[in-house]
Amino acid sequence: MMISMRSIRTRLLASSILWVVLALIITGFILFQLFKDHLERQLDAQLRLHLNELLSRIEISENDFSPAKTPLSDPRFRKPFSGMYWQINTENQEVFRSRSLWDVTLPVPKKIGLPEGVKYSKIVGPQGKVLQSAERIVFIPGNSTKIHLIVAADGSSVTKLSDDFAQILLISLLLLAAGLILSIIAQVTIGLRPLNHLREELSLVREGEKELLEGPFSSEIKPLVDELNALILRYNELITRARTHASNLSHGLKTPLTILQNEVHILDETLDVKHSEIVKSQLKQIERLINYHLTRANVVGNTNLTGQYIKPAQRIKALAEILGRVYEGTNITIEDGSEIDRSLKINPVDFDEILGNLMDNACKWAEFNVLVSLKTKNNNMVVSVEDDGPGLPIDQREAVFQRGLRLDENAPGSGLGLAIVRDIIETYEGHVTLTDSLSGGVRVELYFNNLIN
Q1: Which of 246, 430, 248 is nearest to 355 (CA)?
Q2: Are strands 369-377 and 331-335 parallel, antiparallel or unpaired?
Q3: pTM
Q4: Residues carrying CATH 1.10.287, the chain
Q5: pLDDT band per the 50, 70, 90 thresholds, residue 190
Q6: What is the CATH code of the structural domain delimited by 222-303?
Q7: Which CA distances in Å does 71 have to 68, 77, 297?
Q8: Fewest 10 Å CB contacts: which of 151, 262, 301, 432?
Q9: pLDDT in the model for residue 407
């Protein structure tokens, strides 16, 4: 599954967690090395003390020396292969060693060098174990004899302590990492919460439940909120201005149209029928255009009212009663079934405009029956209107959505009905389709997407 890096939340979490993990890894490595170095230095200091003790226990005569008859303080020097050992080598290849070495000799240089300070190194001891050693070369006072002293300890104790510390350190750092990651997630979530609130407020404005963005916003988000509110106010101002212009245009043209219609009547009286018909057709076309654009302006201007919920079944029944009185010979049937109590989020004026146009067209073309049905598909409401009229050829179905087009000039109307229906329903992100009805007429289906409750 791909994770989008365009997400601010994802980028913040990824970068923060990455830096935390890297910092903890580096910190863990440094702490482990410091602890291990401390153990090794501590062991070296212990070996130096034992080396000094061994040197102080040597008994020196005029021309010779002998190892200490009194054992060293650490009892491990007396237990075989205990892990603590001492050894003295002379230039004459004589070897004196602790009881703990038993019959094993520690590796030393064949030729003893010049005296120098304490030297620390790793050597191989009994049973092949690696030992940490402290060595020193000294002169016997009163003669030129040199002896080589070495004290060694098993370094596995340092390794074991280091491993135990590494395990404890790993568990501690993992717990710390988990705590830090959880705190980072909480911090990012809380930090981005104002953006979620802003999104919710924008959704309410888009759905018409609020006019502007409201609520307390942080100082970082407030300038953005102010700009968005200014944009919304500007948008509403432009919509209002457009509606006003459309209304003024409509009213401004009504007077010239009335005068022209009167002139047509005069032409009829003077029997200039040909010119009269031409003027009449042009006047009708002008009237259609005015009605169409005025209706569109009203629809766009009402989109801020889409927060209302209506009962489609109730409004369809009201429309059926009105049209039933106009078309007395037509039987209008409504099938609402289980959808009778469902609500639809739409402006009631727009819904009446849509269904009024469709039901009126169906009644005009029906022989006897008009069927209106409601159903839901995938959380979408579908309203269908069908008649038993002559039907509509497939090649003409798209044409009927063109404004002002009338397939039958003898039928009443302006030819704007289906064009207005499509414009309104597309404003609500829905769509309309035309198919054949089972009774041979036309079936119109309206799909209202994600607006039901």
Answers
A1: 430
A2: parallel
A3: 0.52
A4: 222-303
A5: confident
A6: 1.10.287
A7: 7, 8, 111
A8: 262
A9: 47
